[in-house]
Amino acid sequence: MNKNYETVFIINPVLSDKQVEDTVKKYKKVLDKNKVKVVCDESLGFKELTYSINNKNSGFFHLFQYETEKLDFVKNLETELKRDRSVLRYLTVSLCKDALEYNARRAKGEFKKKKK
Questions:
Q1: Euclidean distance between CA atoms 6 and 93, whole angstroms
Q2: Helix, strand or coil for residue 60?
Q3: Nearest residue to 7 (alpha-carbon basis) of 66, 85, 71, 72
Q4: pLDDT tens per residue, range 25-79
Q5: pTM
Q6: Which of 1, 11, 39, 76 has the smallest count of CB within 10 Å of its CB?
């Protein structure tokens, strides 16, 4: 049975746009190579960090939401992220049905702030 996961990672802010794009493509290929069903592949943009990581106060955030039945895939992905010097931090969580419903509604734009 497939389980749903969400991985968010922060990419070093000193990298060029091309290097950030290449880093994201690298992990997208890892997902594709392992035949993982990608539900959401979204850049969350450039953001300030609450606290500095490796003397960096900001970073490029990226989100992958995916389905897999292979638990070892998640461990392998996290190992790759841990070894990558362009990634400051990452977090993978297992999603419950409420989180899946929320993400589907967010993807439709239900929570975007309306401009007055």
A1: 5
A2: strand
A3: 66
A4: 999 999 999 999 998 899 999 999 999 999 999 999 999 999 998 889 999 999 9
A5: 0.85
A6: 1
- Please report the beta strands in 1-116, taking only residues with DSSP state E, as ranges in sequence order: 3-11, 37-53, 56-68, 87-94
The angle that helices 71-83 and 17-33 make with each other, rounded to 10 degrees, is 160
State whether CATH 3.30.70.60 applies to domain 3-107.
yes
User: What's at 80, amino acid-wise?
Assistant: E
Q: Which amino acid is at 42?
A: E
Euclidean distance between CA atoms 63 and 10, whole angstroms: 9
| Extents of the domains making up the chain | 3-107
Structure-derived torsion over alpha carbons of residues 56, 61, 66, 70, reported in degrees to the nearest 10: -10
Spatial distance between the Cα atoms of 4 and 22, rounded to a whole number of angstroms? 25
Residue 23: Cβ within 10 Å count = 20
